[in-house]
Amino acid sequence: MSHITIQGGSRLEGTLAVQGAKNSVLPILAAAILHPGRTVLRGCPHLSDVESSIRILRHLGCRVDWEGGDLVIDASGLSRWDIPDHLMREMRSSVVFLGSILARTGWAELSHPGGCELGPRPIDMHLSALRQLGADIREEGGFLRCTAQHMTGREITLSMPSVGATENAMLAACGAQGETVLVNAAREPEIADLQAFLCGMGCQVKGAGSSTICIQGRQPTHDVCHTVMPDRIVAATYLAAAAAAGGEIELRQIQHSHLSTVTAALHAAGCQIYSGPGQTVLRSEGRLHSAGTVRTAPYPGFPTDAQAILMAALLRGEGATVFVENIFENRYRHVDELCRMGADISVAGRVAVVTGVPALYGAQVRCTDLRGGAALMVAGLAAQGETRIGDIFHIQRGYEDPVGDLRALGADIRMS
Ligand code: UD1
Hints:
Number of strands: 24
Bound molecules: uridine-diphosphate-N-acetylglucosamine
CATH topology of the largest domain: UDP-n-acetylglucosamine1-carboxyvinyl-transferase, Chain
Structural class: alpha/beta
Radius of gyration: 21 Å
CATH architecture of the largest domain: Alpha-beta prism
Strand order of the largest sheet: 22-23-1-24
CATH superfamily of the largest domain: Enolpyruvate transferase domain
Mean pLDDT: 95
Strand content: 25-35%
Shape: elongated
Low-confidence stretches: none
């Protein structure tokens, strides 16, 4: 089992291009089956979650090949509408295939994705949206058996702006007759990227990025080549790393407007930040101060996926920072690991209070989830001595080459 080992204390300096976004490419891979033809994805990150999606696509009968840096999918041979349990269990977001399989074939059979390391993750809003379009969905013994021969577009109001439910409803609506209007849709940039991809195939979708999305049901008409948007959470991770370790880094290939709440918090904590088209520069002396209160919220609010990462950057900050986690019930599992490194964090329900300590110390720690694992890397870079991080398969779900990237910025970090 491999580990990431970090010798803390190096300042980070240099320039980095940010990988394509995991949370954008996963729904796009599900969307690729809508068109019985070819999809070329540029900038598709090499991630274990992408590999899981590729296994699902191949199981469904698609041809999928890496051609240089591009991922090429040919969905003309799609011949199945089921996803076996072992493939569903690899990745919770595989549930977004439900909408696209139904739209393409009118049938779908897959197992319930269940809970995950962030706590219970129900899919009631996904199922409600698909039922409102006319899908008949039976839940039997952990399995979902769905029929949707005649889906019809209509207005659907989500009870909260769930990212996955918005994506699933968009994909299913492409296969419905007439217009679907999604009200209270999630506004995350990854949804706008999905819309751009669908439009590239010839679907008619508009409004993504706002809370009302309109989809005219119609079969996609053409092959598509799409460049995946940059990963704003990976960008946030490297900014937080430089903030914690000190130094000056420039990130390229990013949309700084996607990161505004994260950079605002880092600025409040004492970092200097400059943004221009496609780039952001962060300069930090390494010792920060409180960022006040940070509340996670749906986009454009502070992303829950950056909560652990920002927390790690502030562990040595002067004063106390309060985190309020409003999206997931159980998103402080990284706290115990950070405390092993000398952090002072107290948690009560959805609130965590971080009181800055003079120093962090390297320790043996374990990833509890993807972003919690990234937080351990950030803390390790700012700690004295050696940090050895285990269970790094969590990190590999969302980071293409964190060791290579951080080494390129001057960190003393290696796989062992
Ligand atoms: C997506 C992201 C994840 C991010 C999250 C919130 C992907 C692959 N994952 O996850 O990285 O942390 O958005 O920004 O894009 N909920 C329900 N019923 C539902 C659906 C959701 O109660 O049917 C709840 C969830 O339990 C959670 C909240 O709504 O508490 C937000 O979840 P959602 O926006 O759906 O997140 P995901 O799409 O799962």
